[in-house]
TrEMBL record, chains A, B:
A molecular function GO annotation: metal ion binding
Protein name in the entry: Magnesium transporter MgtE
Source organism (scientific name): Pedobacter nutrimenti
InterPro entries per UniProt: CBS_dom, CBS_dom_sf, Mg_transptr_MgtE_intracell_dom, MgtE_N_sf, MgtE_transporter, SLC41_membr_dom, SLC41_membr_dom_sf
CDD domains from the UniProt entry: CBS_pair_Mg_transporter
Length: 449, 449
């Protein structure tokens, strides 16, 4: 009995075989699952990828290509292949996977690929290319099992077996009426368990969730995750059944959405490719840094305003970095917790209000606690109790601001319909920098001069 | 035909009904899916929750409780219920869900709940409680469909139907030999399609992935996501089949892991509850702020070292905040991209090296670009070309450091087996603060005095 090796590092065996002849490489490849070869593709060049795809049976080759990460650019690999081989592979792909890959290409390249396909396949893919890739229509697969609600058990089973010849995996049997209007789902289990002379209409479960082609992919993911279903039907405005989105697409969507969240909150454009080159990275990050620079000038204007004070008490510069640094980090903490909470739950107005109140309290306590440490430090090193008091007050005040803005700004953005993760650390730290300097230097001017 | 209402805000209807009598409330509740009631539970008090659970049929009540977010503390609700009602609900739960909830309780409370259950259920749950909750054993469900490899098709179908009486959903039929050794899977589709006189051994697919009870949940999630499977078998060291983990558990794991990543990278303890109270938040965040304070003292020591310079050129204070702020944000950008990349891909040594090189280049270019802006600003406002040059060099140098540490530190941590997300913005910004001040003030001392 052969099980797959769970140690992915073992693809080194293929890497070694790449140095040898095709015969040997082919034998080595047989030991691997398509998704493992897809992972290997991330670390080898385009020429080696082509060589491997050409050696693989077409079913495996198409699976490898559909398993490749978007960032490994399967569409570029596809373009390099011989048109005949390419058409074979695309015809083997599920329509939704083929569409995802082809949609990444220029229009003339898309046309070229589609022209080599059978009329049926080409028109199906052309149809799917019309949908927004972040919608249910863009995610859905148009191959699924459906039976007419009026069929008898025996005929339904025959129909399912007939349709399943073309569909590798199915999790749910969809039920439609004579006009392809969606009527519900039926489980294979219920069909088998039922008596012989039963009709599908008696077995169908109508109380299921469904989505429209333009439903956002995040909503699709939320529904599949909330209702623990393996696939969700996609219908048009008149309830005609058009396709299904399966749980594995949703896992990919969740990973993508989470990448976007973590990037946005850190001031990186959501569409920066993780493994992109430095040019992409500069394009994605420089605009945010320029925004940050503008906000930093704001903070430094506050510092300039108090230049006379700083000239007299130079040690304040040393405390400025502490107050600003602590405020920025406390704000980032409140921001991360709040953004994540918004993305997992729907908060009521009362819950939003309580969240801000909670972060106010957290800021007050954490500010007073760390302010006290700095106060003690100031007493020992600068022997100046009044300076200590100024720092204590500035720290407490700034961490309160950090809590209120870190929680309040993403909640406000959510309420006005803007993605809360856009309230990145860059935006939030502006408040703590400006307010922190203003508090520290303002109090110092009043109390120390 | 009735479909569920997709608009979750509509649970307000239940909220209104809570003001009325039980009869009316019961009728209103019938319109809702268990997972919708679970969401409602997040915004009502414990007393109302109990009232609703007591009104619901036991199958729905148990589903509601299993769908409740961990943070809504279903275990506390369970404790408050009448022991008889509670036992009914727990017996209706899947073993893995029951275990998840009960594991959150104190040992004497666990014993109390288990003592009311049937011997069979209690011992199954007790068995599952032994596994680490972040392992495959902790995630797995011990209820699944399995058939002996030697059965004939007809007997296998009968067996599957018999076992499926107790199991609401199954996606895969597992195959074992006479000693419960795992032999592979068989799809219901293949059984139905096969000829009448076929044996399971001819239909079984042995080439499947499996996990051990102690496999980490992240690895389980990765495998299910990589191989697009609805459930993965869990075996002991001798390959005895013990349970299965299903895709819906994995969706929850992914959400949890992503929450942990975003919290850790922002300097929040990974186990802070998103909807916890201020006491939890202070406990989770204050230690990180104290660490940050220690690193801030380090940065401020650099400032103190250059106090004579600052006393002479007070305007440097204003530029300090710009250099430090920009360095911190650029480092956070590089950190976010790298941490996310590590968590989605396995990077080879060469790829890691290239990542750091890429971030060096990005830092150089973004540093020079933003440094140039500040240089022009310094020329206009401070009429001091030499000061402009100092700032330009400090900005470029600090953004290079930001890139190298933001990418290099998480990669180093990964290599020595530490979670890379622990390289939070708090740790990374220490480098940019210290180095940024050192560069700015050091260069100023050399070139401006």
């Amino acid at each position: 009995m052969q099980f797959f090796d769970l140690d992915r590092t073992d693809v080194s065996k293929i890497k070694k075989a790449l140095a040898g002849n095709d015969e040997h490489l082919k034998v080595v490849l047989e030991e691997y699952h398509a998704s493992e070869i897809a992972i290997l593709f991330e670390s080898i060049n385009q020429q080696d990828r082509q060589r491997i795809v050409n050696l693989l049976p077409v079913e495996i080759a198409s699976e490898v290509i559909s398993e490749m990460h978007e960032e490994a650019h399967p569409e570029e690999l596809l373009l390099k292949l011989h048109p005949e081989k390419r058409a074979e592979i695309v015809e083997e792909l599920d329509y939704d996977d083929a569409t995802d890959i082809i949609s990444q290409l220029e229009e003339h390249e898309q046309k070229e690929i589609l022209s080599d396909l059978s009329e049926d396949d080409a028109s199906n893919i052309r149809e799917l290319l019309r949908y927004d890739e972040d919608s249910a229509g863009g995610l859905m697969n148009t191959q699924f099992i459906k039976v007419n609600v009026n069929l008898m058990k025996k005929d339904a089973i025959e129909e399912i077996i007939r349709q399943s010849e073309e569909i590798e995996e199915f999790y749910t049997v969809f039920v439609v009426d004579d006009h392809n209007i969606f009527r519900g789902i039926v489980s294979l289990k219920d069909i088998i368990k039922s008596k012989t002379n039963v009709k599908i209409t008696e077995l169908v479960r109508p109380d299921v969730v469904w989505v429209h082609t333009d439903t956002d992919q995040e909503e699709v993911a939320r529904l599949i995750s909330q209702y623990n279903i393996t696939s969700i039907p996609v219908v048009d405005q008149d309830m005609h059944l058009l396709g299904r989105v399966t749980f594995d697409d949703v896992i990919d969507v969740l990973e993508d959405e989470n990448t976007e969240d973590i990037l946005k909150i850190s001031g990186v454009s959501e569409d920066e490719e993780l493994s992109g080159n430095w040019i992409d990275a500069v394009k994605s990050r420089l605009p945010w840094l320029v925004i940050n620079l503008a906000t930093a000038f704001l903070a430094s204007a506050v510092v300039r305003f108090f230049e006379p004070t700083l000239a007299k008490i130079a040690v304040l510069s040393a405390y400025m970095t502490i107050i600003a640094g602590m405020g920025g980090n406390a704000a980032t903490q409140a921001l991360a917790v709040t953004v994540r909470r918004i993305s997992l739950y729907d908060l009521t107005d009362q819950q939003s209000y309580r969240t801000v109140l909670k972060e106010f309290t957290v800021g007050l306590i954490n500010g007073a606690a760390t302010g006290l440490i700095v106060l003690v430090f100031a007493l020992f090193f600068d022997s100046n109790p009044m300076l200590g008091l100024v720092i204590f007050l500035a720290m407490t005040g700034n961490l309160i601001i950090a809590g209120i803005t870190g929680a309040g700004i993403p909640l406000l953005l959510k309420r006005v319909g803007i993605d809360p993760a856009i309230a990145s650390s860059i935006i939030i730290t502006t408040f703590t920098d400006v307010f922190g300097f203003f508090l520290l230097l303002g109090l110092a001017s009043k109390l120390l001069l």
